[in-house]
Specification:
CATH architecture: Distorted Sandwich
Radius of gyration: 21 Å
CATH class: Mainly Beta
Shape: globular
Number of strands: 28
Strand content: 25-35%
Strand order of the largest sheet: 12-13-14-15-28-24-23-18-21
Distance between the termini: 65 Å
């Protein structure tokens, strides 16, 4: 009798341990493969689900969106973002896949800006400029995660004064909310104890076909913008704001991404190696107006973007080069993902006529980006 009790007790313990093991996600991710320690902080994978069956997986390493499962026009669930299936690849491989980028998304000319009469020098990591907050921007740091429910998640970053050369201690929170209409509603809030600059965004690479082997050049793109900020050969904004009319930059009517993308006789496409530019949105901060839209003819999945930001950087994965292997063992080749980064304009700290990115003590930074997924049959 005693041996039977021991057997059943052991069996019960085994069942309990099995029941507490994190289940594989709808996108096929194993949460255990996202558990490690980085700089003394624990990483994990967090899953959001809504009643419609949509699933979004996020890791607190860089507050990165790892997978997004949405239905296609046939009712099949598709993962529509690029990324890795384990934390080690995010830690060891240089990438911005899915990240909440900070302190300053995009580029700052020569990594230098002046604030309050003092000049600050940031590390340079891209053609002599500071890109995405420097080589150890927030996308390479562990956020503190707090999951409120199946549909809400908070990622908290405490950035000390002098972090990558930026002044002021900043407390920032990235809110991820999965809505019942299949939207990922991302809000950024931040405060500082000293005057600083800030510009946060999400850097997900979308492939709406659900097949990351396929390029995004056959997808259609709309951008609600009559002008853009041109760049030089080092991808730095020149300070001009030019009209898109009668140029390959005109997406005011929806059209195929690949129609003009390789027309390098047009200097801006040559400079960007394709599309890697900031468009000046016509929405003027109105979050109810459509800022941009991408549609995959293969899956019928459409992505709408709404934001209070004045600009959006559209990057067509021009530098994906087959050296990184992502989820499902797929090698990420050139132009197999498109980024839609809502933002203030690149290098705004050095261009005083552009919308300000200065955050002062007593103020609160607020930015919002909504990625809404729909079906077009």
């Amino acid at each position: 009798m005693k041996s039977l009790l021991i057997f059943f007790g052991a069996a019960a313990c085994l069942m309990a341990s099995c029941s507490t093991k994190p289940a594989q996600t709808l996108s096929g991710l194993d949460p255990a493969r996202f558990q490690t320690e980085v700089d003394g902080r624990q990483t994990a994978l967090y899953t959001l689900k809504n009643k419609a069956g949509m699933e979004v997986c996020v890791t607190n390493f860089g507050a990165r969106i790892v997978s997004v499962m949405v239905p296609d026009k046939y009712g099949a669930m598709q993962d529509v973002v690029l990324g890795f299936d384990n934390i080690q690849s995010y830690v060891t491989e240089s990438s911005d896949f899915g990240a909440a980028v900070g302190r300053y998304a995009n580029r700052i000319n020569q990594g230098r800006f002046t604030l309050g009469g003092k000049t600050y020098q940031l590390p340079t990591n891209n053609f002599g400029h500071c890109l995405h907050g420097g080589p150890q921007g927030w996308q390479y740091k562990v956020y503190r995660a707090e999951q409120d429910s199946d549909t809400q998640l908070r990622m908290i970053m405490e950035s000390p004064d002098g972090d990558m050369g930026f002044p002021g201690r900043v407390l920032a929170t990235v809110y991820y909310r999965l809505t019942e209409d299949n939207s990922i509603d991302i809000c950024y809030e931040a405060t500082t104890n000293a005057e600083t600059i800030i510009n946060l965004t999400n850097h997900s690479y979308f492939n709406l076909s659900g097949d990351a082997d396929q390029p995004i050049t056959s997808d259609s793109l709309y951008i609600n913008a009559d002008s853009f900020t041109p760049v030089d050969s080092t991808y730095m904004t020149t300070g001009e704001i030019l009209p898109v009319a009668d140029t390959p930059m005109d997406f005011t009517s929806i059209r195929l991404i690949g129609t003009h993308i390789d027309e390098f006789a047009y200097e801006q496409l040559k400079n960007g190696n394709g599309y890697d530019h900031n468009w000046v949105l016509n929405t003027r901060g109105n979050q109810r107006q459509l800022a941009a839209k991408v549609v995959s003819p293969q899956s019928g999945i459409a992505l709408e973007v709404y934001t209070n930001e004045p600009g959006i950087q559209v990057y067509t994965g021009n530098f994906l080069d087959g050296t990184q292997t992502g989820k499902r063992g797929i090698v990420y080749k050139q132009r197999t993902g498109i980024c839609l980064e809502t933002q203030h304009y690149p290098d705004s700290p050095n261009k005083p006529s552009w919308p300000s990115v200065i955050l002062k003590p007593g103020e609160e930074y607020y930015s919002r980006c909504v990625y809404k997924f729909t079906i077009e049959k």
